[in-house]
Amino acid sequence: MKVKKAVIPVAGLGTRFLPATKTVPKELLPIVDIPSIQYVVQEAVDAGIEEIIFVTGRGKDSIEDHFDEAPELEQILSNRGNHEMVKTLRRIAEMIEVVSVRQKVPLGLGHAVLCARDLVGDEPFAVMLADDLVDSEVPCIKQLVDIYNREEESVIALMQVPLEEVHQYGVIKGQEIEPRIFRIETTVEKPVSSEAPSRMAIIGRYVLRPEIFEILRKQPPGRGGEIQLTDGLAQLAQQRKMFGCAFTGERYDIGDKFGFVRATVAYALKRADLRDKVLAYLKSTIQ
Ligand code: UTP
Question: Looking at the whole model, is its pTM more than 0.90?
Answer without folding.
Answer: yes
